[in-house]
Structures are given as structure tokens and as C-alpha cells.
Amino acid sequence: MDRGLPDDFTVDNAVALAVRAPSVPVYRTELAAWSGRHTAPDGIPSANAPAWDDTPGVLPTRAFADPALGQPPGSALSEPLTERDLQ
């Protein structure tokens, strides 16, 4: 089945690109342009965007503009990953 993917596409390549994307200036600019909106019909509403968390062991999030989605203390997103989470 043709999915419109390049012939050299692999999951490893996709993961590597996803990991590298946040360090690419054009990606950060595009994310800032499409997030943090309050009344626009397009993009990622501020109320639905979680705050960026760079705590080691926590599931990485994107650096959305003006994030307003709070995470309750002790929620899965605020707790470090364990070996069990990765199985």
C-alpha cells in the first residue's frame, strides 16, 4: 500500500526527526504561530496547550505559546517515568 512516504522512510528516521524538531528554529516559529490562540478558529487553543516541562524522566512536551492547560499535582504528566511505564 502506497502511503506517500519516501522509499527510505523508517520509524527510526521519523523518531530521530521528531527528537530534533524542537531545536530547529523554523519548527519553533511555526509552533509559536499556531499555538497560544484564544479566539482564533485555527491552531492550538491556549486552554488546550500544556506547559513545557524539561524535568528529566518526564514525558517531553512541546513548547507551546502561552500554555494555559494546567496539570494537577500527582497527575501522570507531572510524575517521572518508571521502567513499568516504558514496557
Task: Produce a short descriptive summary.
The protein is mainly alpha-helical and 87 residues long. 23% of the residues lie in helices and 6% in strands.
Task: Characterize the structure shown.
The chain starts with 10 loop residues before the first helix and ends in a 42-residue tail after the last strand. The longest helix has 10 residues. The protein has 87 residues and is mainly α. The chain is built from two helices and two strands; from the N terminus they run ααββ.
Principal-axes shape call: globular
Termini separation? 30 Å
Provide a count of the helices: 2
Summed over residues and divided by their number, the pLDDT gives a mean of 77
Total beta strands: 2
Strand arrangement across the biggest beta sheet: 1-2
β-sheet strand percentage: 5-15%
**Structural domain tally:** 1
Structural class: mainly alpha
Q: Indicate the percent of residues in helices.
A: 10-25%
Largest sheet: 2 strands, parallel
Sequence stretches where pLDDT stays below 50 over 5 or more residues = none
Report the C-alpha radius of gyration, rounded. Answer: 16 Å
Q: What is the N-to-C order of secondary-structure elements (H for helix, E for strand)?
A: HHEE
